[in-house]
Amino acid sequence: MGRARIIHETPGFINYNARLYFYHLFLPDMRTEDFDFELPERLIAQHPPKQRGASRLLHVAQTGLADRAFSDLAHLLREHDVLVLNDTRVLKARLFGKKVTGGQIEVMVERVLGEHEVLAKVRASKSPKPGSNFELADAVMVEVLGREDEFFHLRFACEYSVDAVLERYGKLPLPPYITHVAGEEDEERYQTVFAREHGAVAAPTAGLHFDQAMLDTLCAKGVNIAYVTLHVGAGTFQPVRAENVEEHVMHSERYTVPQATVDAIKQAKAKGGRVVSVGTTSLRALESAAAAGELQAGSGETRIFITPGYRFKVVDVLLTNFHLPRSTLLMLVCAFGGMEKLIAAYKHAVQNEYRFFSYGDAMLIEREL
To answer: Whose CB among 34, 60, 82, 114 lies 3.0–4.6 Å from 365's, allowing a Cys bridge?
Structure first.
């Protein structure tokens, strides 16, 4: 099977290679094409539902699949469960400007390095060289300090901090599969209601379904709410291009797991509750913080790459959206819920016209035992 495809006319179906679950159990290598599928373009959600939480929910349970509404989540979670949310906030990371020669230039900030410095992707007719300058928004001069792989090290030569420049001149960076330019609707709906820690260039999209009323309902039921921070990078949208999964080089992201969250998880486990991760980003933060075997509070950089065969240490239930073909996140959910079961779930979702990707519907997946 070739590259991932989105088809434009006829309804598609999951078209995974014949090497399925048992193949992965007994052979050490996995092929990226095993995580490819066809998806009708009309199923890619271009706008959020009219209200937060007005989405469908595919429940992937141990006993099978069930079509539900997101509002059913309050009935599916239990007293003493702990719901872990990623509180990262999306930066207005896209900036436009011009070179000294007059050519157009676009900057996508990947990471803020300090008061005046960033790592960013730069799109121009010719890549800028170290030592060169250009201007953003007819207001901010930028010096190119150097290059680190695909990213440029830039310094904003102005009195304002990077955060102030982005807030004043930046645009929200919508995912590449959303075709419209970010507007007022996106300014509100492409942030979670609990976003507070600035640093992401993409939203932790499973969290977009929650409004405050749902969080209050869960708290009233006895579900504890805890937080982690993982600043989502643009690499989350990149397909795996290597033929063999093990050859893929994972992008790095910053994360923080507070002591309060570690304590909440220990208390939940002690009372028979489950750890319910809202999104793959929360899961990656928790599993990274448990790399030594036991969950520990702290901050760091993670390149954790979870594929079928990984043994989960913390998370019991995963709430997530539907992911891109050939992506590391699709591999992660297959590892979590089981390859066969997730293949069936994605096939079911396409056939039943669930909405896909960032503004789409959700899945609630119970970890394969």
So the answer is: 60
